[in-house]
Structure prediction request, 239 residues.
Amino acid sequence: MFRDEKGYRPTQQIFTEVPPKYDILNRVLTLNLDEGWRRKAAVRILENNPGRVLDLCCGTADLTMHLGRGAGSSTELYGLDFSHTMLERAREKVAVFGKDRINLIQGDAGNMPFESGFFDSVGISFGFRNLTFENPDAKLHIGEVYRVLKPGGRFVILETSQPANGLIRAGYHFYQKFITSPVGGVLSGNRKAYRYLAYSAINYYSIPEITEVLLKAGFSKVSGEPLLMGATAIVTAVK
Ligand SMILES: C[S@@+](CC[C@H](N)C(=O)[O-])C[C@H]1O[C@@H](n2cnc3c(N)ncnc32)[C@H](O)[C@@H]1O
Prediction:
């Protein structure tokens, strides 16, 4: 299990410290591909013409922004995150849609302030790893997503994955270890956060593994779409 130099597991603190340069680092470290992936995930999230949508672990609202642009005006949009600094930045961004268009809420994914069956779609971009990787609350987090979805509702995950080809996988792990971790660490000034992000990406689920986790949690019709030769993936599941 990953521990920082003081022996702690990654915590809320990491995501409270990261925001000032978080967006620009995402663009740099994904070679500017991340926004296209979020746009694609937003299309999947909105595919069932949802009345209510949650961007879970919304961070600085990058996925929420795509949802805001893609959803009809009758769709209610919510974002939830436990980092108040991420949400501050998110509030500045979603202001372009006008007051009250998007509801941003500070809260914990393990205990969401929504009644059961509240959402038609839940999307999560680059947050599922935090909720499940070496996380003792992984089952609780997935169970909460299941609970807040309506029967028939969609869960769409955009997350790092594992390329099926061994050579490409080795190159991807090299990139995480020797580019993401040091470059992210130096540019953000938070080495701990980017060491964790690289370590968790290298050791995270492949599409077949995440499919099994979701099926075990009760989801059905799980399908995975590899992006960038499998370094990232969009996985869709139905309650
Ligand atoms: C890597 S960031 C991704 C942010 C954003 N979705 C994106 O696409 O850039 C992960 C986010 O998950 C949030 N997060 C992690 N664990 C959480 C939890 N248990 N409850 C709520 N938010 C959580 C962090 O605060 C952080 O903003």
About this structure: Residues 12-238 form a domain with the Rossmann fold fold (CATH 3.40.50.150).
